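Chapter summary example.
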Amino acid sequence: MVQQQALRDYDQAMVNFFTRTQRRPTWRKAGHDEGFRIVRVRHSDIKRVSRNAGHVRVPKVGWVRFRWSRAVPEGVKSYRITCDRAGRWHVAFAAIPASIPAPGTGKVVGLDRGVAISAALSTGELLSVPGLKAAEQTRLLRLQRKLARAGPGSSRHKRVKLASAKLRAREKDRRKDWVEKTSTDLARRFDVIRVEDLKITNMTRSAKGTTKRPGRRVRQKAGLNRAIMRSGWGALIRRLEEKAPGRVEKINPAFTSQRCSACGHVDRKSRESQAHFRCTACGYACNADVNAAINIAMAAGRAVAARGGSPLHEPRNREPRPLAS
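The structure predicted for these 325 residues follows.
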């Protein structure tokens, strides 16, 4: 059954590739995406044995115990068992959860994503992804140095690599937990959620360039790319769109961080630093990320038009062009 399902998954992956919806499937690599999928699951194959434990029947294996973290939805037809790089086994039952209904209050919120502050809301809230603690970061750096000195394929290399993977998995679990809780909270509190239409793939592209044209400030750009990935920008918006379909609006990000949310004046000098914003025209001052979030919330109807233009590309303080006689 597992081998047949692997062939079906490969066939579907090739169909997605030829229809240009996904990339070409690659060769499986040891230690990555380890797992298998079981289909045609019956209701009797899953049972709960205690408050925190359940049993699932795996073909050719028998009953396997797993931690009952949440209720298994009705009508489950398949599940997937995977092993992550930290050596932990997981079972995931395939089900499409229901979306979160809108509260009906008419509230609109703007969300600005950053590196120092992962998400700033137009309400003034500043949210940050919980990462590794200082002691954990020190230990991770020490393990990376040991891994660089260990011989490839040796027992020490495998042991250090596993210890490093456990810390990385801990950081990933915290980020995922933050994304789930934050997206659920926003979907329950606001009717409309406005975010910037950021091209994260382009923003996190390497700057090393080519041999003939090497890039500049490559290390700084690599550090910025890692910080963006740690902030969970894409995961947060993806989960918001899944939990609140039709209520997430993407706007053009032009001038959102340079525009004053009080008077509308646009000046790059108004942003004194990463965290401070002071308008050079009216003197309005607030947190720079919150000011950008307010601009995003007020950007109704400012999505990119079909001609490629946007009202955000025309600052309010710009003088209108004289009409030709």
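To summarize the output: The chain has a mean pLDDT of 87.
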